[in-house]
Amino acid sequence: MIWYKYMEGRFAKDLVDHGRLRVNSLNYYRNVELHGNAVGDREENTFNATSAIEGTKTGDQLNPVERTIFGFAPGVDPSTCSFSNLSVVVPVQGRPSYGLCLSDTLSGELVARMNEENALVGNPPYDACVKIHDHKVLIRLLERYLKGRGLKYYGHGHCFYKSRNIPWERWHRESDQCPAFVKDPSYSWQKEVRILFECGSGDEVDPIDCEIPELADLCEIIEIPSH
To answer: Are 81 and 103 contained in the same domain?
Structure first.
């Protein structure tokens, strides 16, 4: 499968000439003031588990999401407490992760929209596009390199563009829910794909600058179409 990486021309040249590529923590992208609303996302790597209490429930009838909100003092029998007509929202934080974010789509309109946001926060435009010819080899090379830096590959694929509010009835039955792949529908135009690596701490924000000469054989700089 062919993937595309939009970037500044100087970084594109570093990639195709030397195999140099930067990988960032997902937390890094939460700074919308720094990145704008295309590259940045305040809710990156999170979603909300939600539950609606319609009518009345006693404390011993609460599901696990609801129980995270209501704590009972020692000696209080939950069955003697009742809750009526409430909406419960519990933030779910994804595993601490680094990610390489790309697109499966070659589009001038896509990069133009990204550059509108770049300009609003004073960042340089993405004036180059790197075509990556084999995503499986890309993943394998990154996995080998980042393993030596304490990161563990755990998945890749397309982002899912849907509400971050996931009802309990769905959430607890779907074992594949992964906040790192969930994006608000307003980002769907990006056609984003990601390669994800778990790190040891959610506080990690420093970028990792990779130099993998074999990457150069996978990549070429191509012209961005007008539309």
So the answer is: no
Provide the β-strand partners of residue 211. Answer: 20
Confidence (pLDDT) at 72: 83
| The amino acid at 26 | L
Same domain, 82 and 107: no
Global pTM?
A: 0.85
Residue 204 lies in a domain: yes
End-to-end Cα spacing for the chain = 22
Asked if residue 227 is part of any domain, the answer here is no
Position 1 scores a pLDDT of 86
Q: Are 6 and 111 in contact (CB under 8 A)?
A: yes
Two structure tokens written together for 148: 């030596």
Residue at token pair 């070429």: 220
- Chain segment 101-124, per-residue pLDDT in tens: 999 999 999 999 999 999 999 999
Which residues contact residue 13 at a Cβ distance below 8 angstroms, ignoring those fewer than 6 apart? Answer: 128, 221
Number of independent structural domains in the chain: 2
Contact between 33 and 64 under an 8 Å Cβ cutoff? The reply is no
Ranges of residues in the chain with a pLDDT under 70 are 171-177, 202-204
* C-alpha to C-alpha distances, 149 to 24, 57, 87, 95, 207, nearest whole angstrom: 13, 49, 43, 17, 12
Looking at the structure, tell me whether residues 60 and 80 fall in a common domain: yes
Asked whether residue 99 falls in the same domain as residue 179, the answer is: yes
Residue 162 within any structural domain of the chain: yes
d(CA 128, CA 183): 25
59 and 120 in a single domain? The answer is no
